[in-house]
UniProtKB/TrEMBL annotation:
Name assigned to this protein: L-aspartate oxidase
All copies of domain FAD-dependent oxidoreductase 2 FAD-binding, residue ranges: 21-419
Keyword Aminoacyl-tRNA synthetase found: no
Biological or metabolic pathway of the protein: Cofactor biosynthesis; NAD(+) biosynthesis; iminoaspartate from L-aspartate (oxidase route): step 1/1
Active site (record annotation): R313 (proton acceptor)
Length: 570
């Protein structure tokens, strides 16, 4: 955007309309899996993705992907019941039990698929290397050293780019879902998702995409918080877009903070992603612990939770946050040195090459030095509500991966269940979308139009809205929430939204405006749900209501134009 408003004549722009069978928004593990599945059935598929194809949360996943091999179950090394119980325990009373059961019994399907695609999972002489992470009772996490996500993303993207049925539009940011009710301005019609509008970020033109079925795979909303492990793209676009057209949105207050990202006081850009130190370092396989000083060998988390540093990440994040507030520390330490973990430097270097190299580059040799760490926003547990087949409340619109709320995560995600959920439901929803697409979309989808002379928005105003929203979320709606902070957050976010919404409608279409509007909308949904839930549970901690309450053992649900309410977990 230019600094000074420029006048533009819009009348001749934005005429392109592209038609396809299945339209997928997003190219992380969920979107790529769904695309390959739909293509296998002979469908014409388009993927719209807002940066390069591999830019995604998936790319940065380190620890691994859950998979319960039926053979290990048969040999008594693990059990479906154990994965079910571990997932339910993390979800803290809000998991959908039918979905958890389905997931546990099918979690090996994505592993088989990924092995077939040649994802190079780590092996040793005994077979696949399986990790056991915090909250898991057994070793069942498949990994590619400590760059599992990169290996999966690059492998699947490679397959998609070679597939003749799939066309990928990189740098196309989707900003509006087209639904029958919205298009015809009639809330009484039977609704259906008809397509989307997306801006070509390189040329600043808008195209309409019409499809028989639309699958949202836009990932989470970590960028809503100032400090996050998530890359730039995680601005909550899918959740905001689905909300605008009236889809049901659930459990937005449950945001998982990761307890261990690298503390870097200097040399970081304000928008830079925080480098993650995988859960596997604190898991039973490695045995790292958190301490309050570099010389300490005492796991301080034991003062907050009986499982100490091996507890689930919500408990560990709350302990780190509380300890930092109590003692005034700027960070704590993650210690994986031989003295603590019993692992040799060679073991650490072999299993965590990326982390070892990154920290060494910052002057920390993790085999002999404790690592300074802080918590950061990591995973969006809530999202667009879907049923067990990936269907949202709007016919023709499906949601998969981190943008969705299947009921698997409940109030908190069990480590490494998210890649598996995204890959499994990527297939399930693709199968369902294929069936749905037999009912052809015969409606006219108009080109995007803006008539008359309009100007570019002021970049300084949009940047300020972006910054204020993110700092507000971090300080008033982060790990430790209270009524007073949340009321203040909602007030600030409402006012920011009013301003960005006026800019959205009044100025030349621009990707920065679209993302900022979506980010503020997603932030509002989180803050309002957090204010509504007057208890502490899973990834939602309120120091003014520190206990869990039976009357809140339900999902929070909101739809555009209605009040937030509690509904039973089905
Ligand atoms: C640092 C880090 C480490 C992690 N480690 C693990 C782990 O070890 N195990 C695990 O299970 N999970 C892990 N996770 C979580 C996991 O990576 C994500 O939950 C998962 O990858 C989500 O996949 P997805 O396909 O739903 O979304 P993403 O991978 O985030 O993909 C979303 C896609 O949508 C695109 N997009 C977004 N908005 C738009 C728009 N408006 N228009 C067009 N395109 C759009 C993005 O560009 C991107 O291509 C980690 C996450 C992070 C950030």
């Amino acid at each position: 955007m230019s600094m000074l408003p420029q006048l533009i004549n819009m009348d001749t722009q934005h005429t392109e309309i592209v038609v396809t069978d299945i339209l997928i928004i997003g190219s992380g593990i969920a979107g790529l899996r769904a695309a390959l599945e739909a293509s296998k059935c002979g469908k014409k598929v388009i993927i719209l993705t807002k940066s390069r194809i591999t830019d995604s949360n998936t790319y940065y996943a380190q620890g691994g992907i859950t998979g319960l091999d039926p053979e290990r179950v048969a040999r008594g090394k693990d059990s479906y019941e154990s994965l079910i119980q571990n997932t339910l325990a993390a979800g803290d009373g809000l998991c959908n039990k039918q979905v958890v059961d389905f997931f546990a019994h099918h979690s090996y399907e994505p592993i088989k698929f990924l092995i077939q695609q040649n994802v190079p999972f780590s092996k040793d002489a005994d077979g696949w290397i399986l990790h056991q992470e915090g909250g898991h009772e057994h070793e069942r996490i498949y990994c590619v050293a400590d760059y599992t996500g990169k290996a999966i993303e690059e492998t699947l993207a490679g397959k998609v780019l070679q597939d003749k049925n799939i066309k990928v539009y990189e740098h196309f940011l989707t900003f509006t879902l087209i639904t029958r009710r919205k298009l015809r301005k009639n809330p009484n019609l039977d609704d259906r998702c008809l397509g989307v509008y997306a801006i070509d970020r390189l040329n600043e033109t808008v195209a309409a995409f019409k499809a028989n079925a639309v699958i949202l795979a836009t990932g989470g909303a970590g960028r809503v918080f100032q400090y996050t492990s998530n890359p730039d793209n995680a601005t909550g676009d899918g959740i905001a877009m689905a909300y605008y057209v009236g889809a049901k949105i659930a459990n937005m207050e449950f945001f998982q903070f990761h307890p261990t990202v690298l503390y870097e006081p200097f040399g970081m850009q304000p928008n830079e992603r925080r480098f993650l130190l995988t859960e596997a370092l604190r898991g039973v396989s490695v045995g790292g612990i958190l301490t309050t000083s570099p010389d300490s060998t005492e796991d301080f988390v034991l003062a907050y939770h009986p499982d100490g540093s091996h507890a689930t990440r919500d408990k560990v994040s709350q302990a780190v946050d509380a300890e930092m507030k109590r003692s005034g520390l700027k960070h704590v330490y993650l210690n994986v040195t031989t003295r603590i973990s019993g692992k040799t430097p060679e073991y650490i270097k072999e299993h965590f090459p990326q982390i070892y190299a990154h920290c060494l580059n910052k002057g920390i040799d993790i085999t002999v030095q404790p690592i300074p760490v802080v918590p950061a926003a990591h995973y969006t547990c809530g999202g667009v509500l879907v049923d067990i087949r990936g269907r949202t409340s709007i016919p023709g619109l499906f949601a998969i991966g981190e943008v969705s709320c299947t009921g698997l995560m409940g109030a908190n995600r069990l480590a490494s269940n998210s890649l598996a959920e995204a890959a499994l439901f990527g297939k399930v929803a693709a199968d369902e979308a294929i069936k749905f697409s037999e009912n052809k979309n015969t409606e006219d989808v108009p080109a995007w139009y803006t008539t008359g002379i309009i100007s570019h928005a002021d970049v300084a105003t949009v940047n300020q809205i972006w910054d204020v929203a993110r700092t507000t979320m971090m300080s008033l709606c982060g790990i430790d929430r209270t009524e007073e902070r949340l009321r203040a957050a909602v007030g600030i976010l409402d006012s920011l939204y009013d301003t960005i919404n006026k800019i959205y409608w009044g100025y030349y279409p621009n990707d920065q405006i679209f993302e900022t509007r979506n980010l503020v909308q997603a932030a509002k949904l989180i803050a309002k749900a957090a204010l509504f839930r007057k208890e502490s549970r899973g990834g939602h901690y309120r120091s003014d209501y520190p206990q869990k309450k039976p009357e809140y053992e339900s999902m929070t649900l909101i739809q555009n134009g209605t009040e937030m309410k509690l509904v039973p977990v089905e």
